[in-house]
Amino acid sequence: MKLDKVIAVRTNKTIYRDGDKVIKVFDKDYSKADILNEALNQARVEETGLNIPKILEVTKIDEKWAIVLEYIEGKTLDRLMKENPEKYDEYLNMFVDLQVFVLSKKCPMLNKLRDKMDRKISQAPLNATTRYDLHTRLASMPKKDRLCHGDFNPSNIIITKDNVPYILDWSHATQGNASADAARTYLLFWLAGDITGADKYLNLFCEKRDTAKQYVQQWIPIVAASQLTKGKPQEREFLMHWIDVVDYE
Questions:
Q1: How many angstroms separate the CA atoms of 193 and 188, rounded?
Q2: pLDDT per residue over 27-72, tens digit each?
Q3: Predicted confidence (pLDDT) per residue in 79-99, tens digit
Q4: 84 to each of 67, 226, 227, 228, how far by Cα in Å?
Q5: 213: Cβ contacts below 8 Å, ≥ 6 apart
Q6: Are 174 and 148 in contact (CB under 8 A)?
Q7: In this structure, how many other beta carbons lie within 10 angstroms of the beta carbon of residue 48?
Q8: Nearest to 109 by CA among 147, 54, 61
Q9: 3-state class of 62 per DSSP?
């Protein structure tokens, strides 16, 4: 495999293209368990029949673990939205339809979103009272078993030249409550600075899923606490704003 064409650099990993393959090479100190879990998640989601890049190989290159996947030719939905602002609403509709379709699927071998959220709340740099309130809120939320992407945003959708959408990056996939996945997407729009898009997204999602907006909003403090564990200083003030909602509700 040739590693001379870098197509993206992320924290602790570099992504290369070699012909019709994508090679995701992780840093030497990256958890082997997390890498294998990411590959396993993607392999399990493949079985749902969704359009996603297929896993071709998990290997080691120069003592570093690597996941080899199919390369999908096209543009990200995020790029298309920026290149064609007049078509933003059309693309947002496509985006929400795709998420609703994903959430219609079940993938019973994936880890449970509720367990992940419980663990993240415990790890979050918050005081004990707030963590207790968040654990209590999580325990009160209905248990579901929908396929949740966990990082569903326009930069993780590739549109081919034939207008076929493919969904990337299943490393955070779990099974759980669809509204939790929507709350995370809403936060991701905000964190990207697209406040108008966030509100449009939430309205569209609730309309297409026939879900009360307040129900999705109840998940926001929980997913904000989860995001806080990533330790990004530039996000802390914004996330604390949403987490503090627990205190006055």
A1: 9
A2: 999 999 999 999 999 999 999 999 999 999 999 999 999 999 999 9
A3: 999 999 999 999 999 999 999
A4: 33, 33, 30, 32
A5: 202, 203, 206
A6: yes
A7: 13
A8: 147
A9: coil
